[in-house]
Write the structure tokens for this entry.
Amino acid sequence: MKKITFLILVLVVCACKKEDSNTAIPAPPPMQSLPATNFIYSSKSLEKHIKFNSELSQYELVQLENPQSFSITELNFPVKENEFEYNKSKDFKFYTPFNFEKDKIEYKVITYHSYGENDTKVLNVQLNSYSDGKPIDALLLDCRFVFETEYYREFSIKEDGTILIKKVTINGLNYDDDGNIIGTKAVKDTTTENLNYKLNSTGSFTKI
């Protein structure tokens, strides 16, 4: 009887060891790389709302709700980094996909179309600041179009109030001395320009 009991215990122990050896050890969760400074919003935040129309060679806004018309004040309000002067138009409405508050100043990220060369549509992303509902400042975060050259921007708004803007120009055409298009380049020329802005305590956007 003792031998039988001993044999049973041996079998149980062996079975447990075999089960343990076949049981997969769960892998540790992957390491998550955290940015040095967290972002409030960036270009990636708007990716799902921007679609390129290859037939018309222009960018469209999609999956956005509550379009609003610009007021006279908003149409005439100056916008920083609007060097092409593709200004807002009453023909296009705007959307407000994001808003946030910092130091008791309200900020809105708005997106809208404006007219570009030959009345083609230009897509814009703009950051506005307000105090008690009154506009303080405006900064063009992104401007996208495809004419003879392709132009777009990438941006990020950090929690510390820093705004990073990268302007990208892509030229794939060759011109003669008179400025006429004579062909395309085997390798497109790409130029970039980086800008830094800062949200100050008054809601103004200061270039740094």
Observations:
- The longest helix spans residues 2-22.
- The helical segments are 2-22, 72-76.
- Residues 101 and 107 are 6 Å apart (CA to CA).
